[in-house]
Amino acid sequence: MIHGKKIVVVLPAYNAALTLKKTYEEIPFDIVDDVVLVDDNSKDNTVEVAHSVGIKHVIKHEKNKGYGGNQKTCYDKALDLKADIVIMLHPDYQYTPKLIHSMSYIIANELYPVVFGSRILGKGALKGGMPMYKYIFNRMLTFTQNVLVNQKLSEYHTGYRAFSKEVLLGINYHANSDDFVFDNQMISQIFYAGFDIAEVTCPTKYFPEASSINFARSAKYGMGVLGTSFVHFFNKIGLMNSKIYKPKDK
Questions:
Q1: 3-state helix/strand/coil string of the chain
Q2: Which of 12, 68, 186, 247: CA 20 to 30 A from 179?
């Protein structure tokens, strides 16, 4: 805990058996109270590894629900555990758990309600081996999103995020896609609801065991991201009324 606030790390996992132990061992348990792993019907022994390293809250989807569907289960469970701060960390060791301290303290001290680990600040992406086409794709999408959403994030596509309980309770993340575009729909909801997002420089690692989507999936993701940004823009100017911005009880 920090200042009496309970911290829960959630791990949305798919075929993470080779990297899970290393990720878990770097989690700072001097402040982290609980860890939740949601396995999205992996083809490897991710669940067995999760139990072997001592993760107490392990949930296995009997059918693959997708990256967004996995996160929905993660956040639901974290809120059930009465989390005040929820850290979403990929268990593929692409992002270091050593930033959990910094991200958590920003929220616990009520400076910002959301914190992202940015691979773009400090040139972490290219240093860590991000393919050039993905870097260019990231930069082009981020520029367009900032224009449409009227924000100044360095990156919309990081998988390392921290949220206050108030943010997760204040947006209707269950209305979002179960696919990869979930992440960007969630950012749109956060800004639409009036919450601010802080960013910290985050190193990243690209290696064979780390999860990554291919070019075709990247292109599909990019189209979904642009669509989300236009939906946000048109809702802001009153030309649309998307369900993702409606409260949970409606």
A1: CECCECEEEEEEECCCCCCHHHHHHCCCCCCCCEEEEEECCCCCCHHHHHHHHCCCEEEECCCCCHHHHHHHHHHHHHHHCCCCEEEECCCCCCECHHHHHHHHHHHHCCCCCEEEEECCHHHHHHHCCCCHHHHHHHHHHHHHHHHHHCCCCCCCCCCCEEEEHHHHHHCCHHHCCCCCCHHHHHHHHHHHCCCCEEEEECCECCCCCCCCCCHHHHHHHHHHHHHHHHHHHHHHCCCCCCHHHCCCCC
A2: 247
Cα–Cα distance for residue pair 31/2, rounded to 1 Å: 6
How far apart CA 32 and CA 21 sit, in angstroms, is 16
Q: Which domains, from first to last, does the chain contain?
A: 7-245 (3.90.550.10)
pTM of the model: 0.91
For 105-128, give one letter per residue: b (16+ CB within 10 A) or e: bbbbeeebbbbbbbbbeeebbeeb
